[in-house]
Amino acid sequence: MTLSTVSEEQRIDAVHRLGVMSERHPELKRRVADARLELAAVILAMDAVDERIQAGEKIHSLQEQAAVEQAKNAHAQALADLLRGEH
Questions:
Q1: CA 12/CA 47 separation, integer angstroms
Q2: What SS3 state is found at 7?
Q3: pLDDT for 13-28, tens place per residue?
Q4: CB 70 within 8 A of CB 39
């Protein structure tokens, strides 16, 4: 399922579920926020390396790209745990 195949009703359900589960499980909400922050940090780090590469520096961004993938997965898992109310 892609973002374009998600219906308006499904989006509304997701907003409602996030709100309810965030109230019920503040510790899981914090985990999602921490994972989101980590994801943002690694994206910025990857962008910085990409800028250095574009400037002609001979480095590879594979480590940063892997970190972004790991952070995306961690964020997705934290969000799924929150939606499901799992600890």
A1: 33
A2: coil
A3: 999 999 999 999 999 9
A4: no
In terms of Cα–Cα distance, which of 77, 78, 50 is closest to 62? 50
Q: CA angle 42-65-75, nearest 5°?
A: 50
Alpha helices in 1-87 (DSSP H): 8-24, 26-54, 62-84
pLDDT tens, residue by residue, 22-75: 999 999 999 999 999 999 999 999 999 999 999 999 888 889 899 999 999 999
Distance CA(70)–CA(1), nearest Å, equals 21
Show Cβ contacts of residue 17 under 8 Å, excluding neighbours closer than 6 positions.
83
Query: Cα–Cα distance between 59 and 79 in angstroms, integer?
Result: 33
